[in-house]
């Protein structure tokens, strides 16, 4: 018997201990126990399990035994062969065959070895490539795992409002700047007669000027076709980096502009689609209370390259054009509240809220037209309903960006404030 067979036979004996003759656990020895946990089997379950699978395991072992015997037989055959070859080799040595025979044999063996080496080299290259692939896959998997960890962490932290609202407050943005605020952004302000503070965007420059922004158009993202209540309360979004569109609200504009003996200057800033910027300033800007339909008044045009469209424009259609397109002294109109000087409803025709006359030469809450130029056909009903400043561009040209902002008038006239302010913005 070969040593291998001896070994396997021993193994076989170990695999069949006598205890396998009977069930490992009898049903009586079951210990139902909670310790195993609700989803783990009890010892009874373990016994049942072993009893159920024992016949199949026995069969496997029988088959295994057969296989081992076969291997044993084969090993024995191989051993016999080795013995036979050794005998014939020693016999061959004794008979000394011709050198030529050995040479040929060894040269074919060399060929085989060379072939073998070549295939080993090729295999090694393959293995190397696969290893590289494995490494890069590992790296990618690591990255993916890190990403998923990051995402998991992000998902665990609840949604937080990360918008920064500055802590300085005041009755307007100039007050905020006077109290030391140095950067533009969102601030709460509370005009003197306001019941509650409210949020505004303050544009604060390095000269200490603090503009309170009332209106912003940038990209057409907000629909300005709204009704009275929305224009009264305000709509759109205030953003800490001045990237969004909004109307602050007529009530807030009223409270701001009428709160003190120091009158305000309204600055209108305009950008066209060619990137040119112009502005127009109005002294003593005021918006009346709701009881007076948020009437707009100002004392005079203070200056600016955009021209004085607020005071009307002579379109050349009629001698009264300028008079009927002036906005000074006009009440605010919306589609649902007609306070204009026209037999029709300007705000409804133009889909906006504004200090309509009959109807306008300045119209900053108009419809947003990408690219600027539009026609009566684009407007749907032949009304010029774009974002218009007639003293700069025609009424069939809708401006790209606008803003309306106010500052106390003394900032424009004292301490070189006027120069500073004008220089900084344009
Ligand atoms: C192994 O060899 C013995 C004796 O030579 C024989 O009786 C037996 O059947 C063989 N077993 C197998 C599985 O071939
Ligand atoms: C803007 O709102 C008005 C009124 O709700 C609506 O009729 C109009 O289609 C809207 N315009 C756009 C561009 O969404
Ligand atoms: Ca009317």
Automatic annotation (TrEMBL):
GO molecular function, one term: protein-macromolecule adaptor activity
Domain called Fibrinogen C-terminal: residue spans: 164-410
Organism lineage string: Eukaryota, Metazoa, Chordata, Craniata, Vertebrata
Alphabetical UniProt keywords: Blood coagulation, Calcium, Coiled coil, Disulfide bond, Glycoprotein, Hemostasis, Metal-binding, Secreted, Signal
SUPFAM superfamilies the record matches: Fibrinogen C-terminal domain-like, Fibrinogen coiled-coil and central regions
Keyword Oxidoreductase attributed: no
A GO biological process held by the record: platelet aggregation
Chief location bin: secreted
InterPro entries listed in its UniProt record: FIB_ANG-like (IPR037579), Fibrinogen-like_C (IPR036056), Fibrinogen_a/b/g_C_1 (IPR014716), Fibrinogen_a/b/g_C_dom (IPR002181), Fibrinogen_a/b/g_coil_dom (IPR012290), Fibrinogen_CS (IPR020837)
Cellular component GO terms held in the UniProt record: fibrinogen complex
Species per Swiss-Prot/TrEMBL record: Synaphobranchus kaupii (Kaup's arrowtooth eel)
Subunit structure of this chain's protein: Heterohexamer; disulfide linked. Contains 2 sets of 3 non-identical chains (alpha, beta and gamma). The 2 heterotrimers are in head to head conformation with the N-termini in a small central domain.
Pfam family, one: Fib_alpha
Protein name (Swiss-Prot/TrEMBL): Fibrinogen C-terminal domain-containing protein
Gene3D superfamilies: 1.20.5.50, Gamma Fibrinogen, chain A, domain 1, Gamma-fibrinogen Carboxyl Terminal Fragment, domain 2
Keyword tRNA-binding: no
Cellular compartment(s): Secreted
Cross-referenced CDD domains: FReD
Signal peptide: 1-21
